[in-house]
Amino acid sequence: MAVITQKQSDELLDPEFTTKLDQLELISRKIFVGKMRGERRSKRRGESVEFADYRNYVFGDDLRHLDWNIYARLDSLFIKLFLEEEDLLVTVLLDVSKSMDWGNPHKGLYARRVAAAIAYIGLANYDRVSLFAYSNGLRGELVGVRGRRLMFKAIEFLTNVPYAGPSHFELAAKQFAIRQPQRGIVLILSDFFDKGGYEQAMRYLVGRNYDLYTIQILSPEEIEPTLTGDVKLVDVEDDDTAEVTVSRALINRYKKNLQAYCGDFREYCTRRGVNYMFTSTEIPFDEVIMSYFRKRGLIR
Amino acid sequence: MNFLSPGTIAIAAALTVPPLVALYFLKLKREVHAVSSTMLWKRAVQDLHVNSPFQRLRSNLLLFLQLLLLCIAVVALGQPMCKTVETNESTYIIMIDQSASMNVLEADGKTRLERAKEQAKRTIEGMPDDGRAMVIAFCDRATVVSSFDTDKTALARKIDSIEPTQSSTALGEAMSLAEAYTQNIIIGTEETGGDIAPETTAPPASVFLFTDGRVADAELVSLQSFDVAKMTVQSVGTRADNVGIIAMDARRSYERPEILEVAATVQNFGPDPITFDAVLYVDGDNLDVQTVELPGAPRIDDETAGSPAPEVGGASDDASDAADTIQVIAFDPVEFSGGGVVEVALRTQDALDADNRAWTVVPSPRHVRVLLVTPGNLFLEKVLGTLPLDFETMTAAEYEAAPDEKLLDGQRSTFDVVIMDTHSTDRLPHGNYLFWGSVPLIDGVALGEEIKDEVIFNWDETHPVLRYVAAETISVNVWRRLIVPTETVSIIDGQTSPVLCYLARDASQFLISAFPLIAETDLGEPYMNTTWVTQVDFVVFMQNAIQFLSSNVATRGRKGVSPGDPITLPVPEGTKWINIRRPDNSVDRVPTAGYQTAHYARTRQVGVYRAEPGVAGDDVFTVNLFDPVESRVEPAKTLTIGSASVEAKSGTIEVNQPMWSYFLIAFLVVLMFEWVVYNKRVFV
User: Fold this and answer.
1) Chain A residues whose beta carbon lies within 8 Å of the beta carbon of residue B681
2) Measuring CA to CA, which of A254, A295, B239, B345 is 20 to 30 A from B256?
């Protein structure tokens, strides 16, 4: 087992920030059926102390759940139903394609920090946390860790997973949907610059009825390009080139296209009940966690 | 293909081609930039190229530059002209002064003629495309350098071919030529049914006169249809400093013909006082130097062209001031026993060189030739025999019967002095005559009745002929009354009639004595009419009289011709061609005419001309400027042509300048700028 160093840990989450994260918990707009008993209210009636409902006694019910007071008053047998408390499955899909290994501030590091923070909050609240890295397919995973003491595993995973290959979101989503049928919160951290498009991939994910959060991370250079003159642009993912003469008109056109692309993606997500968030790596990531995610109701 | 300014092409190519090539070499390689995805960039480029054509139009400097280039090219194709002169005429008459004063070297190192030619070519360039022009060069005569032509290149070439001369200026012939040509100007073209312009209207032509305004005959020009006020007189030149020789004389001493006396008249035409050396050369040897100091010439503000130099001794103050600027330089007499060329040169750096040197040909010394027409006079024959001269004797009958070849040299007498002893005649070729007891049969002169018993009453002892003569000792028995015109100068007076008088008429001089030396009695017996002939004074008188009468011949240098004047030279018998060696050492081959002569007219260069083979003594002639109008080089501000005055414009002539060359330059500049922008593409 690789030993996670304090430095690597601090790079993703500094101790001061983790203290703040301790106060937070992930919430889901949907209540999922968990595998294990947890700290969350479940749709299923269970054995928690929280009353849910009554029903008529039928043969075979546990006599311990009979409400004797009602029986005394009404002479009928009723069973007291309590809410079941289950754990929450929190999954982070981290884009590790080469396009994420770019930008200043670095997009990949930014995404890993967000992933680390989400993982920490989940682990701190005894949620089951899964981390998946993808580029052209799933590249690595850390599945089902629970409890704060396993945070080091998450850090280790996030630190060591390499940037590789072009982005193939569709394939990765397809593999993920097969790999994880269980519903839960799914955060996708990516720039969503996929030449194959995002629609099919999102279809796979939406079909699984996950509580989906798409977080699009772009660097300032992508939002406000500072290129001038005649340049040969090389795509870091597939070495595709584009010779352009950067003009004000071209810059304006690029920004409009970017706006349109992001707007289309947001609309696509909104229509399908997927939560969309856009962030620049210029915005401090803790602000994203503490403010943006709160506003969006992902954490409280 | 012809180019007016081939040098400009080379300069423009040198200035533009290398930078343009350099810009090609400087074309930047595209800088490689890594991006997270080219997806949006490609889409943006595609949008700009395909989907948004009008967005390309918006704030695209390159596009604007290319549009500007296109506009410049299109406008240049329209052959734009800078219209500074309002003229609708398409016919130009260019007249260029090529006289001596146009040789003045101006401050920019160009002569006035070169400036005038440049301005004339500018005028031709500014001519409308359908225009035509003729070019006339004039000095003492006018020459049609080019008749009406529409080819601007050919016209410019013709203008370039105008050579400088050292002649005087005569505008009249040029104006007459121009006027004659304009009578036949056709309005329109043959295709459009052109017709000759009506004579009643002013000629439909723009007339340009390029001169420094020093035109001697400007006021004498008479014009019929030209409106002088509409002429454009372009004055060229600014310099005024000039000193020139305006006259020169060389003569031999009467007593000692080997002694040569040379004098030259110089005048300062410039505004500043000047001191210079005048050098005398005889056959190339420097024999004397005189230092001359002359005050500056007074400025006359309202001067007009063509006005001659003020006369010496004029009444006005200006004239007297001007007279101070004239000085006669008398060189020390030099001994020169041969014939040759005498030159006076002024050592000064002034505006005009042509008038700084003057030449004259001095013949070999010879004795005065005298013809004595007498029935026989011992005294005269004895006296003439003792004097240093050559004389012949004829009787009156022989004189009258003598062939013209014997007595005439052209219009002049072949003898320096003719003495008519008691023979009145009307056969008087131009010459110098001494009549004893007879008179020339010319208007106003006649002999009257006999006068006796009168005495010599008065005499002019200052007259040259009475030098060292004691007139009071003259005793005459009888003389005749002299009827002479009023302009006659009486030298010795009787009580009622002059006894000896002097009359100059046409080109002849007459000394007329009212008494004969030998008279006849009623019986026809000769007797001595005066005892004077036996005295020494008579010998002195005869020497004085012959020297006085012959003072302008034989002992003087031969006058040359003015620049441009033709000359007739005698040639040896049997000669068909002679070579004229010009002052610049070039040689003209001239055919001889009849009567053993050759005519030569290319004399527009001052200096010494030599004929080979030539007749000894007549094989050398000189051409001198001697023209105060030309020497006065200061450009005139106003030119009076005929009765009208026209203001002379100075500076560069205003013409309708073709602008296509400027558009071409602008095109090249914008093109280079566009190329720079294209390579930068920063602010588009």
Assistant:
1) 229-230, 245-247
2) B345
